[in-house]
Design a protein that fits this description.
Length: 322
């Protein structure tokens, strides 16, 4: 879908971005100072030139005569034939003349047209999650809208008879629901369109009905709790009745009882009930699936081996997030 540029932050690019114009579009001055022809400078020692003309950003300078300097300001177009700019701090102005020191290199302080990006260059690839820097680039190229993948539609709910809604009285042996708020925020930061389906009790029939309804109109279903091996963990069984379970349980800690599957065409992620396990499994398992479903070219974070500052023993064959 095509969206206005201010609404594109965090969205996944659907088409390549090719520069329709060069950046910068014209040769311009990088500093406030004096533009000259390098060929007019003395080979050694100072050079004194008459100052003829003045050009500011947005100006349209006329071609100057040979052997003169032009007063110029940052971002102003370079007058035809001039190729080098002296910073105003480095020169001496004497009436309508300027004294230029020796030692400046040809082309100094001049930005060439297209030196950031030539016209026709492919600058952004499909699958890129757009950042504020990308929006700045698109705006500099003259784009006021961009084609992105539509938002992933995600349904989120928590399960458990003990779970209470924050703000409500805490029932006996109850705990407040932390997971939905964690998941909603994580998914929102990935530009997903999130539907909050609330808290579901540990009832097989209610869980099956809720999953079936949620699968209609959503691309992804995300639950927390109910996927372990306890007698009151019914989410895994409900998925197996309604669809298919691709895998269940991983050699990680926390978060071993994580499940992935499909419910009536919608992808399903069943996360554990513990909030820390929810975060770990979302970041290391669910994040990659959200990227794939969103069309995002996702690279997992690089893992760097370091030596721990404490003693720690773990089970062989299991990755642990400490």
């Amino acid at each position: 879908e095509r969206v206005p540029l201010p609404e594109a932050d965090g969205r996944v690019l659907a088409e390549p971005v090719v520069a329709p114009i060069p950046l910068p579009p014209f040769d311009n001055s990088a500093v406030d100072g004096y533009a000259v022809r390098f060929a007019d400078l003395a080979p050694a020692g100072e050079t004194m030139l008459a100052v003829r003309g003045r050009v500011a950003a947005g100006g349209r300078p006329s071609p100057p005569e040979a052997g003169v300097a032009v007063r110029i300001f940052t971002g102003a177009p370079m007058p035809a034939g001039l190729d080098t700019v002296f910073m105003q701090e480095d020169v001496r102005a004497e009436g309508d003349r300027v004294v230029l020191p020796a030692g400046l290199k040809p082309g100094a302080n001049r930005r060439l047209a297209g030196e950031d990006a030539p016209a026709g260059a492919r600058l952004l690839d499909p699958g890129r999650r757009l950042s504020p820097e990308d929006l700045s680039l698109l705006a500099a190229l003259g784009f006021d809208a961009v084609t992105v993948r539509r938002r992933l539609r995600v349904a989120v709910f928590s399960t458990g008879n003990e779970i209470c809604e924050p703000g409500a009285p805490l029932k006996e042996a109850g705990i407040y629901d932390a997971n939905r708020f964690l998941l909603r925020a994580l998914l929102a930061r990935l530009s997903c369109a999130v539907t909050d389906l609330g808290i579901l009790p540990d009832d097989p029939a209610i869980l099956r009905a809720a999953l079936a309804r949620a699968a209609d109109g959503h691309d992804l279903l995300v639950t927390s709790g109910g996927v372990s091996t306890g007698e009151e963990d019914h989410v895994k069984a409900a998925v197996e009745v309604l669809g298919t379970l691709s895998f269940w349980r991983l050699g990680i800690k926390p978060g071993r009882p994580v499940a992935l599957g499909v419910v009536d065409g919608a992808a399903f992620i069943g996360l554990p009930g513990n909030p820390v396990a929810v975060f770990v499994t979302f970041v290391h398992v669910a994040r990659a699936l959200v990227a794939r479903l969103s069309g995002e070219a996702y690279e997992p974070p690089t893992a760097w081996p370091v030596r721990a500052g404490f003693a720690y023993r773990k089970k062989e064959g299991r990755r642990e997030y400490v």
